[in-house]
Amino acid sequence: METFMTQHLLKTLADVADPSHSALIIIDPQHDFCSERGAMAQKFGFDMKQIREAVPRLNAMIEDCRKAGVLVVWVREIFADSKMHPNQKALWGAGDDIWLIREDGKGIDWYEGMIAPKTGEPVITKWQYDAFADTELDLMLKSRGIKSLLMTGFTTNVCVETTARHGYIKGYHIVLVKDCTGAPTQAEYESGVFNIQTYFGQAATSDELRQVWSKQAQKAA
Fold first, then answer.
1. pTM of whole model > 0.85?
2. With 14 labelled, which of 68, 88, 106, 153 sits at a CA distance of 20 to 30 A?
3. The CATH number of 13-220 is which of 3.30.70.60, 3.40.50.850, 3.40.190.10, 1.10.760.10?
4. Within 13 Å and on the Cβ side, how many CA atoms surround 161?
5. Angle in degrees, 0-180, between the axes of helices 49-68 and 206-220, rounded to the nearest 10
6. Is the pLDDT of residue 138 over 90?
């Protein structure tokens, strides 16, 4: 039996991001969070350029993960009055006044620049920032033997970071794919990257992950 003393700890990027036990977590690539016509940009006047520029890199990463055998998991957020806590309603509205990612609204659609989920790829619906809270995500990941989460999506410092924090607490290794995520401002993006790579795991670019997987494939050949 493997004990704490004999257990192999996953520390290097190659060990942590091994495709056999890794999942690509794609957080909220939705209209309201990515489009200049979405609610976030319209309400706050945010420049969504950084987010939009990350989308092609994220699309490429999704395709590479599929080829490498990494589990691809899609996460979308919906604000539904029946699911929202009072503190959420105070920030985002209640009933017909919900203005962001409202249930049955266009804002919850996948962003038009994103490639589509493939048949069989899990799609998790969350009701707040955290993809683990009141969802089947943890059970699904554990049932598939997943140890590591490759975090991507939007926005870096809110839903991506919140999910990464909870994933770490639940025992998952965290890798932020830092060129496949984004935020409305550089300061928000940098704060999310700093927090995740300092306190909850590590950060790497998509190219660094590709290089790791390429070397592993060459050794296995």
1. yes
2. 153
3. 3.40.50.850
4. 18
5. 10
6. yes
